[in-house]
Amino acid sequence: MKRQVEVPIFILGIVIWVVAIFLPVDSLEFILGNGLRPLGLATIFICPILGIIGMLFSIKNRNIILSFLNIFLILAFPITMSIGYYF
After folding, report:
1. C-alpha to C-alpha distances, 33 to 75, 78, 82, nearest whole angstrom
2. 27 in helix, strand or coil?
3. E strand or H helix that includes residue 21
4. Which of 64, 76, 66 lies closest to 11, judged by CA?
5. Per-residue pLDDT tens digits for 31-44
6. Which of 37, 40, 75, 87 has the lowest CB atom count within 10 Å?
């Protein structure tokens, strides 16, 4: 039986992305300093790493749908910036 690791990785990435949207801007200032905000941390570092890991597992298990969905995690920063620009 194949163990689908890519599904929980994708769900974790989406949850981190959504939680980072609703966190206050200064909530992680004591850890990260004044430079990086929670949304920046999630979209620049965490989501692409989870997306690449999920992509590797989905290609290994030949799950095409989840490999396309993990592309959205890899492109989380440009997607978030374009949504912020247009709305």
Report:
1. 25, 23, 26
2. coil
3. helix 6-22
4. 66
5. 777 778 889 999 99
6. 87
- Cβ atoms 71, 55 nearer than 8 A: yes
User: What is the C-alpha separation between 72 and 47, in angstroms, rounded?
Assistant: 9
pLDDT in tens, 15-66: 999 999 998 888 777 777 777 888 999 999 999 999 999 999 999 999 999 9
Burial 41-80 (b: 16+ CB within 10 A, else e): bbbeebbbebbebbbebbeeeebeebbebbeebbebbeeb
Report residue 30: phi and psi, to 5°.
-70, -20
CA dist 42 to 28, 34, 49, Å? 12, 16, 10
- Cα gap 54→87, rounded to integer Å: 29
